[in-house]
Amino acid sequence: MNLQTIIKENRKKNNWSQDDLAKKLNISRQAVSKWETGESIPDIDKLIILSGIFSLTLDELIKGNTTEKTIVSEQQVIVKKKKKKTIIDFLCSHWWLIITIVWYILLN
């Protein structure tokens, strides 16, 4: 999610108009509109105030919801480890079958 979407969604979540948010930041409504359309971006001091108003960290405000991305990547790592373990477990538990098949192939 990008900054303009985060600003717009959080403003709407709080049932604020662009003018309401602008008053909280002591800026014009047009500035908020430009942020939400991607025509411009807020200064760092406004980003800090926005993060406080929306109860977000600066990372969440600028990068999007980083916790969701982290959870997804951790789940992907766990799934990959399970797949590797599954193959190793299969080979270990069915060694007798593998040896039997190889033995049969070699004898014929």
TrEMBL record:
Spans traversing the lipid bilayer: 87-106
Nucleotide-binding is among the record's keywords: no
Gene3D superfamilies with a match to the protein in the record: lambda repressor-like DNA-binding domains
Pfam family membership, one: HTH_3
Gene Ontology MF, one: DNA binding
Alphabetized UniProt keyword annotations: DNA-binding, Membrane, Plasmid, Transmembrane, Transmembrane helix
InterPro entries, per the entry: Cro/C1-type_HTH (IPR001387), Lambda_DNA-bd_dom_sf (IPR010982)
SMART domains xref list: HTH_XRE
Keyword Transmembrane helix annotated: yes
Domain HTH cro/C1-type per the UniProt entry, residue ranges: 7-61
PANTHER family: HELIX-TURN-HELIX DOMAIN PROTEIN, TRACRIPTIONAL REGULATORY PROTEIN-RELATED-RELATED
Protein name in the entry: Transcriptional regulator
Organism: Paraclostridium sordellii
